[in-house]
Here is the input.
Amino acid sequence: MVWVVHMALPLLGLWLLVAAPFTDLRWENHAAHFWLVLATAGINLGLAVGMNAEAVRRDDARLFLVSMAFAAAAGFLGLHALSTPAVLVGRNNGFVVATPVGLMLAAAFAAASALDMSPRTAAAVMRVRAPLRAALLALVVAWTVATLARFPPFDSLASLDEQHAILLGFMAPGAALYLLAALRYWMIHRRRPSVMLLSLVTAFVVLAEALVAVAYGRNWQVSWWEWHLLMATGFAFVAYSAFVHWMREGSPTGLFGAIALAQTLQNLRREYGRALESLVDVVERNARGDEPAAVGPAAARVAERFELTERQTEVLVEAAEALAHERDQIRRQGALVAVGREASVIRTEQELLERVLAITGSAFGGDELRIDLLHDGRLDAAAEGDAAAAALEVLQPVERSEDRVAVIALPLTVKGRPAGVLSVRRRGGFAERDRALLASFASQLSIAVENARLYRQLDVLFRSYMSPEVATSLIADPDQARLGGAVVELTVLMADLRGFTPFSERSSPAEVVAMLNTHFATFVPIVLDEGGTITTFIGDALMAIFNAPTRQPDHALRAARAALRAQEATGELAAQHQGWPRFRVGINSGPAVVGNIGAERMRNFTAIGDTVNVAARLEGQAGVGEVVVSASTYAHLGDAAVVESLGGLTLKGKTAPADAYRLVALQA
Here is the structure.
């Protein structure tokens, strides 16, 4: 609103002067008029030259058209200065109407420049820039020659009424074009605010008002001087904005950049971005010690390319260094995040360290990292000297420097106890941000080591309470722990100790437990070695299944082989320990439901079904040290089995006798 009020004041003053002629005082000063108009023309010429140079350098059509607007105004204002009486040439029609003609041409170029242009249109404008400049120059020269030679209609001085009619004819279209240009540039200013754009908007509005004042001003009176002052003010405002920018930046580069087309600014940003990237690359190579290159020459090349001042170049180098450091920090922080992810993966300590070093190798490219863990309370002899030992002693980071090489050692702790040390070597020194980042890295690494050890402990405990096959399957796919199951063709091995009850009656509990653990320590590894899955221990009995959870086409053969090997091994135990009971084994093959049975908070991986029941009944029919197999298992074994037929056995819960066989041996 303040801007609008200021823009309205000249028109309000003109209205007052025209409406009240007694206020429109006369002041006829030929020298003042000459120098005012000539100075305004000079300002226009300077703006035109500067904008044209920028337009050619940036290949920008909008800047070129604006420069043509200022050039047209400069040329015809110069002609108008010549019409000053008693100075050079004197008054005639050509020089009198030169100003509105020049302003009209300038308005046309200004309006054209404010329009949106496609890349193809902009390129077409730039292709004809030389003919346009030549045409404008030819028009000014022709106008001057025709005026001086007094060719019609410049052979006489028009009357005041005729002059007024001519000026009115230029006023309406010229003012409309200036206002259109001002509106368009205001819209551009709203999208990307700029002092230069606002100056251009102000200048075009003031020039539109000047055209109105040209039409209604009275010669040598205040209203006539008003349009001269408005014209000078409009052009001077743009020149002053450019001057302030130049003084602030110390360079003419980019004085009129805000006026440029959007695609020009995008190209410029890309060029600046590539230049900054090249400088950042130099800074990063220096930091890594990888093919180091001098920053100074690289910055000088960028400064020469973009015509930067010394201070602007310094700022650019500072920006490149800041960006390089920021990217370095981002890479290192990304490595910390990756190390944090590794803390949730089951790995051995050695695998973990190798993985961490692989992750951090690129992120800490300019540094030499070493991770050493304590073994039997001692560091490896190759660890980073006294810094590592001191860090473990005080459990705080310790920094040393020698021959311009800095070393920082950070302790790794597990449950508050020293577990190892992270050592980092670097040429130069460590900034505070580097120390903070390395402290975070050491903390993440400590957590990863602690988790690796915890995972190992849990894994050992986990596998000791269930079959390794089941444990591995659950670790690979935890969804398999859901309650429920599926029908699977499998072979079930049931075994218990014949004579366990009498042995328990005559032995102490400790002796009973020792006997059971000795037998199971012999039996279980054999079953596992054959790929069986131990599902249950019930007192002196155990149950194992084959073909679940891992599929085994020869599951019956594996169960039979495991049973014979176990009977042989436990038989040797019985010979060494007089009075110890011995195993009897029953084996059956068939379908059963295999899965997790129990409740949400407690469950067991097992097999359920008639196949399991029959195996238990066959085990009850077996003698000491014997292995009894069902007809279905024998069918699976085929010619590989050496058996003795037991005929049809009556099994508890079965209505019909079941054929069974005593397994004697297996043939290769």
Summary: The radius of gyration is 49 Å. Residues 557 and 637 are 6 Å apart (CA to CA). The mean pLDDT is 81. The chain has 22 helices and twelve strands.
